[in-house]
Amino acid sequence: xxxxxxxxxxxxxxxxxxxxxxxxxxxxxxxxxxxxxxxxxxxxxxxxxxxxxxxxxxxxxxxxxxxxxxxxxxxxxxxxxxxxxxxxxxxxxxxxxxxxxxxxxxxxxxxxxxxxxxxxxxxxxxxxxxxxxxxxxxxxxxxxxxxxxxxxxxxxxxxxxxxxxxxxxxxxxxxxxxxxxxxxxxxxxxxxxxxxxxxxxxxxxxxxxxxxxxxxxxxxxxxxxxxxxxxxxxxxxxxxxxxxxxxxxxxxxxxxxxxxxxxxxxxxxxxxxxxxxxxxxxxxxxxxxxxxxxxxxxxxxxxxxxxxxxxxxxxxxxxxxxxxxxxxxxxxxxxxxxxxxxxxxxxxxxxxxxxxxxxxxxxxxxxxxxxxxxxxxxxxxxxxxxxxxxxxxxxxxx
Length: 398
Prior knowledge:
By secondary structure, the chain is mostly helical. It contains 21 helices and two strands. The chain has helices at 2-23, 41-66, 68-97, 100-112, 117-130, 134-145, 152-165, 169-177, 187-200, 203-215, 221-238, 243-252, 255-258, 261-273, 277-290, 294-300, 308-328, 333-345, 349-362, 366-378, 382-397, and strands at 27-32, 35-40. The chain has a two-stranded antiparallel ribbon with strand order 1-2. The longest helix is centred in the first third of the chain and has 30 residues, at 68-97.
């Protein structure tokens, strides 16, 4: 459309010039003694325009000739920039495709071309890490550090991720803590820090970070609960050296978490090992009241190593509680087996056998057969004991 417009304008100008040439009788006279030059006014106008056009073209040509080195330099820079951008895109694609050798090569080209040198160095560092070339990886991380403060967060997060991949939890934690004076604030860093603290066994920090992430809805509730359980179980194990420490740690756990079956089971085991039978019993009873758990029911039948009189008395107390539960769960095989075990501790041989056989009627388990075998040995029934031992072995090999 523009070309058509200019073509029409040229034809119109030509028509106007012809019309002016026919109607105009004026002329232009140049006198420079002894010379005299005379021409029509129309010719003078056309010549002036032509001379101006020629001078303009010559000026533009001279300008381009003088600016040629700048144009060449700009052209080379543009080509270098285009090649660098192409190499950077290729490095990203190769990294996602898992072609790490090619990714590092292309990232090096982009870095040398000056295209996002910091990011290119980080891509190359990750590629070198995947190829287990840790020396090259560290060199690239140093180049990324030289790119400036704008890449500080990206570099430290990358360093932490790579350290976690090597299970170098201390280095990962140091890198993440270097993000902020009071520790990392954004969710991605907190997730990485959670992994680092778990690997280092800093369970108090695991509890704190998991709580923060759960409040921000940054991790699934089930994952947050699992981290919390792992932390409390580990902290209870650390405090299991003496009874006072164990009780102090147990009291420090929130009541809503004390009834969690795995936490309660860990605390009860440690209490039983320390001879705190009443504490172990109370822990399990409170947890079972809140949430029924078959492993806890089985644990309820395990008594601490006390003397015979204390063991029998503790067994009777637990029998009374378990029989109350049995009214609500008359067909629970774990509860029946636990009652059988407790009755055997209390030397109530007949009730122990009845409960254990009732447990087998609902679910045949190796543990119940072993308890019946031990009970038969105590009461002098060797043939029955051998039969239960054989059946327990069959169930173990099944």
